[in-house]
Protein backbone atom coordinates (compact mmCIF):
# COMPACT_ATOMS: atom_id res chain seq x y z
CA UNK A 1 0.00 0.00 0.00
CA UNK A 2 1.56 3.26 -1.14
CA UNK A 3 0.22 6.36 0.63
CA UNK A 4 0.56 9.68 -1.17
CA UNK A 5 2.90 12.29 0.32
CA UNK A 6 0.07 14.78 0.84
CA UNK A 7 -1.57 12.35 3.27
CA UNK A 8 1.66 12.16 5.28
CA UNK A 9 1.81 15.95 5.39
CA UNK A 10 -1.76 16.05 6.72
CA UNK A 11 -0.87 13.40 9.32
CA UNK A 12 2.09 15.60 10.30
CA UNK A 13 -0.21 18.65 10.56
CA UNK A 14 -2.58 16.72 12.82
CA UNK A 15 0.36 15.49 14.90
CA UNK A 16 1.53 19.10 15.33
CA UNK A 17 -1.99 20.04 16.42
CA UNK A 18 -1.77 17.74 19.44
CA UNK A 19 1.04 19.62 21.24
CA UNK A 20 -0.68 22.88 20.22
CA UNK A 21 -3.74 21.85 22.23
CA UNK A 22 -1.78 20.31 25.12
CA UNK A 23 0.80 23.08 25.59
CA UNK A 24 -1.11 26.06 24.14
CA UNK A 25 2.04 27.07 22.26
CA UNK A 26 0.88 28.76 19.04
CA UNK A 27 4.13 27.88 17.26
CA UNK A 28 2.89 24.32 16.84
CA UNK A 29 -0.18 25.65 15.07
CA UNK A 30 1.99 27.66 12.73
CA UNK A 31 4.04 24.56 11.94
CA UNK A 32 0.79 22.65 11.34
CA UNK A 33 -0.29 25.31 8.82
CA UNK A 34 3.10 24.89 7.13
CA UNK A 35 2.46 21.14 6.90
CA UNK A 36 -0.94 21.81 5.31
CA UNK A 37 0.78 24.09 2.76
CA UNK A 38 3.20 21.24 1.97
CA UNK A 39 0.23 18.86 1.59
CA UNK A 40 -1.33 21.26 -0.92
CA UNK A 41 1.98 21.45 -2.83
CA UNK A 42 2.12 17.65 -2.88
CA UNK A 43 -1.49 17.34 -4.05
CA UNK A 44 -0.70 19.77 -6.88
CA UNK A 45 2.05 17.41 -8.02
CA UNK A 46 5.18 19.25 -6.86
CA UNK A 47 8.20 17.20 -5.86
CA UNK A 48 9.57 16.69 -2.31
CA UNK A 49 11.93 19.68 -2.47
CA UNK A 50 9.08 22.09 -3.22
CA UNK A 51 6.95 20.47 -0.52
CA UNK A 52 9.67 20.93 2.12
CA UNK A 53 10.26 24.50 0.92
CA UNK A 54 6.53 25.23 1.22
CA UNK A 55 6.53 23.82 4.76
CA UNK A 56 9.60 25.83 5.81
CA UNK A 57 8.62 29.11 4.12
CA UNK A 58 5.03 29.13 5.41
CA UNK A 59 6.04 28.04 8.94
CA UNK A 60 8.86 30.56 9.26
CA UNK A 61 6.76 33.35 7.75
CA UNK A 62 3.93 32.70 10.21
CA UNK A 63 6.29 32.52 13.18
CA UNK A 64 8.14 35.67 12.07
CA UNK A 65 4.94 37.66 11.54
CA UNK A 66 2.47 36.31 14.10
CA UNK A 67 4.73 35.82 17.15
CA UNK A 68 5.73 39.50 17.51
CA UNK A 69 2.10 40.58 17.11
CA UNK A 70 0.96 38.06 19.72
CA UNK A 71 3.76 39.10 22.09
CA UNK A 72 2.74 42.75 21.76
CA UNK A 73 -0.87 41.94 22.54
CA UNK A 74 -0.06 39.77 25.54
CA UNK A 75 2.25 42.45 26.98
CA UNK A 76 -0.50 45.08 26.97
CA UNK A 77 -2.54 45.56 30.12
CA UNK A 78 -6.22 44.90 29.72
CA UNK A 79 -8.19 48.02 28.81
CA UNK A 80 -10.90 47.29 31.36
CA UNK A 81 -9.75 46.48 34.88
CA UNK A 82 -12.06 44.14 36.73
CA UNK A 83 -12.30 42.67 40.19
CA UNK A 84 -9.62 43.67 42.66
CA UNK A 85 -7.60 45.43 39.95
CA UNK A 86 -10.51 47.84 39.40
CA UNK A 87 -10.38 48.90 43.06
CA UNK A 88 -6.70 49.86 43.09
CA UNK A 89 -6.27 53.62 42.73
CA UNK A 90 -9.84 54.37 43.86
CA UNK A 91 -10.69 56.70 46.72
CA UNK A 92 -12.40 55.48 49.87
CA UNK A 93 -13.82 57.07 53.03
CA UNK A 94 -12.55 55.99 56.44
CA UNK A 95 -15.38 54.64 58.62
CA UNK A 96 -13.32 53.51 61.61
CA UNK A 97 -9.80 54.70 62.39
CA UNK A 98 -7.24 53.09 60.04
CA UNK A 99 -3.66 52.49 61.11
CA UNK A 100 -1.00 49.83 60.55
CA UNK A 101 -3.00 47.25 62.49
CA UNK A 102 -6.36 47.77 60.80
CA UNK A 103 -9.58 49.72 60.47
CA UNK A 104 -12.60 50.04 58.17
CA UNK A 105 -13.28 52.00 54.99
CA UNK A 106 -16.14 52.40 52.55
CA UNK A 107 -14.86 51.49 49.09
CA UNK A 108 -17.08 51.32 46.00
CA UNK A 109 -20.19 51.22 48.18
CA UNK A 110 -18.94 48.35 50.35
CA UNK A 111 -17.34 48.22 53.77
CA UNK A 112 -13.79 46.86 53.67
CA UNK A 113 -11.20 46.13 56.30
CA UNK A 114 -8.17 48.31 55.71
CA UNK A 115 -4.72 49.09 56.98
CA UNK A 116 -2.31 51.92 56.36
CA UNK A 117 0.58 51.41 53.96
CA UNK A 118 2.72 53.74 56.08
CA UNK A 119 2.97 52.05 59.50
CA UNK A 120 3.39 55.40 61.26
CA UNK A 121 0.32 56.98 59.68
CA UNK A 122 -3.24 57.07 61.06
CA UNK A 123 -6.42 58.04 59.22
CA UNK A 124 -9.49 59.17 61.16
CA UNK A 125 -13.18 58.61 60.35
CA UNK A 126 -14.40 60.86 57.54
CA UNK A 127 -11.00 61.22 55.84
CA UNK A 128 -10.58 60.25 52.21
CA UNK A 129 -7.81 57.79 51.41
CA UNK A 130 -6.45 56.21 48.24
CA UNK A 131 -6.43 52.44 47.84
CA UNK A 132 -2.97 51.37 46.67
CA UNK A 133 -3.36 47.59 46.91
CA UNK A 134 -5.69 44.80 47.98
CA UNK A 135 -4.32 41.91 50.03
CA UNK A 136 -6.98 39.26 50.41
CA UNK A 137 -9.99 41.09 51.87
CA UNK A 138 -7.96 44.02 53.20
CA UNK A 139 -7.45 47.29 51.36
CA UNK A 140 -4.04 48.92 51.76
CA UNK A 141 -4.53 52.67 51.90
CA UNK A 142 -2.44 55.80 51.69
UniProtKB/TrEMBL annotation:
Domain NfeD-like C-terminal as annotated: residue spans: 84-141
TM spans (from-to): 6-22, 52-70
Compartment(s) where it occurs, according to its Swiss-Prot or TrEMBL record: Membrane
InterPro entries: Membrane_assoc_protease, NA-bd_OB-fold, NfeD-like_C
Keywords: Membrane, Transmembrane, Transmembrane helix
Membrane topology: Multi-pass membrane protein
Main subcellular localisation: membrane
Keyword Transmembrane helix recorded: yes
Protein name, as recorded: NfeD family protein
